[in-house]
Design the sequence.
């Protein structure tokens, strides 16, 4: 019995030594912490040290398997950029665009499940453009348009990397619609790109256009100034059929003829006065429009004028040519109607309505202004895309 007690006493003594060794060593780690814990991995889309970060691109920090705490992105002025953390706490992303040529600094921490910590730190600078190019839509926003309406984006400076610009553009339609962008020559020393469907729009189609150009390198040191959006609704189908040999103008609305009126077209013996053949597009209309020509010596105000090309072709009232309307072509390229007929047509015309001029010996072309989209064949139009 005494031998057994001696053994027990010895074991207690050994246990006391073991406990004593633990108490005299390092401070015990908190629950869940391992001596071999690895600091969390932190990655950012805007890499610290970079000086050419896209200010309109994704700006985020991620720490898979860790929780981000107090993450902030601060500008040189001390203002924190708006941002949001994902529900799982693994990712933070800026929710506002950054400025061009500005420095920014990361701060915060990533804390692993085992308590290991990695700081979110470092700074970067966004790209500084040599020039900023502004773009704008030529068509009215939130408008109801005709079935031939093109989507037009005009840039106020040259765009040499047209492919990059075009990749930033998108068209969403409520009805599946085949179409394409095409880059057209620009007389304003900028650049312009048009989108048109292969065939006329289906009436009722809702069209949403996005041009996500901010931060996009457009070539030769140029960057997009801002993002743009445009919303359009295609209205009823209204097509003007203008056969210059008939001396009449016919209007077809939703497949039904609603007008057939006497008209006079451009004088056929003068190539400069011939009404151009091809599909024109209505772009503007005026109650009163001053029309002048130094070449032909007139300066007049005409009424109920609907522009169908930028070469000076209008559908408008002209009492002075009333005797020729319905029998001969005497105008300087316009479609002349009686005052009553011109007013009746004017009241129904929409931006984007097609005017189909036929049997004229001179075709509508680039020489006749900047909206000659439908004068270009579909395959050629597609080849005018920078991404074709």
Sequence:
């Amino acid at each position: 019995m005494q031998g057994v007690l001696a053994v027990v006493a010895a074991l207690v003594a050994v246990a006391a030594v073991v406990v004593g060794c633990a108490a005299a060593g390092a401070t015990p780690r908190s629950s869940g912490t391992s001596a071999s814990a690895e600091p969390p991995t932190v990655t950012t889309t805007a890499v610290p040290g970079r000086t050419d970060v896209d200010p309109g691109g994704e700006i985020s920090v991620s720490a898979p398997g860790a929780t981000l705490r107090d993450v902030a992105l601060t500008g040189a002025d001390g203002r924190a950029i708006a941002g949001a953390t994902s529900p799982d706490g693994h990712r933070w992303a800026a929710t506002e665009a950054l400025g061009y040529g500005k420095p920014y600094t990361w701060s915060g921490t990533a804390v692993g499940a085992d308590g290991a910590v990695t700081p979110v730190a470092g700074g970067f600078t966004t790209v500084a453009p040599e020039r900023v190019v502004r773009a704008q839509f030529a068509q009215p926003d939130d408008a109801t348009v005709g079935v031939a309406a093109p989507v037009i984006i005009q840039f106020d400076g040259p765009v040499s990397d047209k492919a990059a610009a075009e990749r930033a553009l998108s068209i969403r339609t409520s009805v599946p619609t085949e179409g394409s962008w095409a880059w057209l020559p620009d007389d304003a020393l900028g650049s312009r790109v048009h989108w048109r469907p292969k065939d006329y729009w289906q009436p009722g189609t809702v069209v949403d256009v996005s041009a996500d150009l901010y931060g996009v390198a457009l070539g030769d040191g140029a960057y997009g100034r801002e993002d743009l959006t445009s919303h359009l609704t295609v209205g009823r189908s209204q097509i003007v059929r203008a056969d210059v040999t008939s001396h009449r103008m016919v209007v077809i609305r939703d497949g039904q003829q609603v007008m057939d009126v006497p008209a006079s077209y451009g004088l056929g013996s003068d190539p400069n006065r011939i009404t151009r053949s091809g599909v024109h597009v209505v772009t503007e209309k005026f109650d009163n429009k001053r029309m002048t020509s130094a070449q032909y010596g007139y300066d007049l105000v005409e009424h109920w004028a609907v522009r169908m090309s930028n070469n000076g072709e209008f559908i408008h009232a002209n009492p002075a040519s009333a005797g020729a309307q319905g029998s001969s072509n005497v105008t300087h390229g316009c479609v002349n109607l009686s005052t009553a007929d011109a007013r009746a047509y004017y009241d129904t015309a929409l931006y984007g309505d097609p005017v189909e001029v036929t049997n004229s010996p001179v075709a509508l072309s680039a020489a006749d202004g900047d909206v000659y989209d439908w004068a270009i064949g579909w395959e050629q139009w597609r080849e005018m895309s920078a991404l074709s």
About this structure: Residues 277 and 360 are 5 Å apart (CA to CA).
